[in-house]
Amino acid sequence: MKKSDIRPKRKISKKKVKQVAVESAPFLFYAFIPLLIFFLSYSFFIYDFTPINYPIFDEQHYISAAEQINKGAINENWPHPPLGKAIIGVGIKIFGNNPFGWRAMSLIFTSLSMVAIYFLGLTIFGDLLSAIFVVFLTLFNQLSISFSRMAMLDPFMFFFMITSFVLTSHSISSKGSGATKQWLRILAGLSVGLAGACKWYGWTALIPCVWILNRPLGQAKGIGLKETFNGLILPTILAYTAAFLIVLKLTIPLQPNKVAEEKSKDQISYTKGEDKVNKEEKGSIPNAITSHQSYRLSDLIPLHLRMIEAQTGFHSPEHLGSSNWFSWPIMASPVWFKLPEEEKRPGSDSLISGVAFLGNPAIIWGGLFAILICIWSWKSSRSKQAEWILAIYLPLLLSFAIIPRKTGYFYYYYPAAIMLGFAIVYAFKYLKSTHYLRMGFSILCIGLFITFKPIIYGQKSPADHFNRLLWFKSWLWDQDPKHDRGIEQAKK
User: Fold this and answer.
1) How far apart are CA 423 and CA 427, in angstroms?
2) d(CA 192, CA 236)
3) Cβ-proximal residues to 121 (8 Å cutoff; 6+ apart), any chain
4) How far is residue 390's CA from residue 46's CA, in Å, rounded to a whole number?
5) Are 114 and 49 in contact (CB under 8 A)?
6) Is the pLDDT reported for residue 480 higher than 80?
7) 311: which residues sit within 8 A by CB, 6+ positions away?
8) Interval 285-297: pLDDT, tens
9) pLDDT at residue 259 above 70?
10) Which band of pLDDT confidence, cut at 50, 70 and 90, is reported for residue 392?
11) 1-15, 226-240, 335-349: range with lowest mean pLDDT
């Protein structure tokens, strides 16, 4: 046999090693590993899950709204889209109106998000180990843990956002038929619409999706603006409108003849200093949204105008945990979802417990360095992998520079911060780092996670140890009564 006959065979076999592994074991890549990631993530999130028996932070608004949807009562929490609150309501129906029932759907959706992150990593990097490394970094980034254990809108919004990225990337990079790719784009648009129906910020997912469709990996060509509108943007609008109407049909609009009636009932109030402020007395609930007994399509425009007024009108620069968007990448001001509480113990150190939305410093700060590497790589070699990572991270962060909402919080950074894991994996590949360096970084992430575990999971810890975790003055919580978020009222 000639040497010329041998060399091509060796070359082809080396090129096809990874491809054959994926094609010959689709169950492993697309069924077993995703299921494993889901159950491991769920176990990770539910660890030491002793639910706080009262709503914390903004939970009180969303839990009450979920109950109103379940009961078909008056829609009081109209400033936010309704889908996320309806999902919380599903958890209450299944698991009961109790602390676990309030937060059960957040646990499930955040675990599903880890599966979506795995698939996105598989699409961007093309190999199993990199995709799993991204999931590892996302879990130990700590941010997902906080949201998985709270009845907030963000876990649902983020799940639909990351799912839209997965579907969009698969529609442009998969080898399926044209009809299959078109359906994937439509499903991606539906996901963006559902993200926006949970929280308006979910609409920003459109920017990365449009970019991915027109700047694909490899040699594939973009689909053009016309196909982008028909296959992505139009389904987004339809899904958002449909979700809005379907959920709102389960509630009663606030009407002129209902305002006086509702004032006599128990209503949500919050404590600000020593004054209890009723929302209607302060004018934060309009006199009427519609005169009809149920929502109609024609009600969406006036309702959205009032929602815009409520979102842009809210301004509280001294609000507990509020910060500017440009400070989020350096984690200058974390948010305390549950203010620290001290438990005195006679004859020994007191114990403190609190829940903070705080990222892993190695990933949050190391991720910024990795983002710079992505920028350099894209600028110098036009790397499509780096471009996709930046196309998702930058719009999700920089959109807050133009969003007219005047008050922001570090937890708004959550969707963008998840992309730091992708950036770190890319940086390791770009720098051609050794396995030992990756292992060392992983050990550092695990060590810092163990260090901060008490304030991530809300565990009790000695006062001295708890205070050592607050590295900077800006990480301290403010115990001034004027910043109280109604915790004592919620307990009652």
Assistant:
1) 6
2) 6
3) 130, 131, 132, 133, 134, 135, 422, 425
4) 32
5) no
6) no
7) 79, 200, 404, 405
8) 344 555 555 677 7
9) no
10) very high
11) 1-15
DSSP annotation of 318: T
The answer, yes or no, to whether residue 284 has pLDDT greater than 70, is: no
Question: How far is Cα 226 from Cα 196, in angstroms, rounded to an integer?
Answer: 22
Q: Is the pLDDT of residue 50 over 60?
A: yes
Measured CA to CA, the distance from residue 287 to residue 282 in angstroms comes to: 12
Task: Flag whether the pTM goes above 0.90.
Answer: no
Tokens of 357: 């939305």
User: Dmax of the chain from CA atoms?
Assistant: 95
CA gap 270, 277 in Å, rounded: 6
Six-digit token string for 394: 């930058």
By the 10 Å C-beta count (0-12 exposed, 13-18 middle, 19+ buried), 127 is classed as middle
Residue given tokens 């379940």 in the structure block: 70
Other Cβ atoms within 10 Å of 316 Cβ, number: 11
Token pair of 103, please? 């937060």
Phi-psi region of 270 (alpha: psi -120 to 50; beta: other; left: phi over 0): beta
Task: Spell out the long-range contacts of 98-102 with Cβ–Cβ below 8 A and sequence spacing 24 or more.
Answer: 98/51, 99/51, 99/52, 99/53, 99/54, 100/49, 100/51, 102/51, 102/55, 102/59, 102/63, 102/66, 102/151
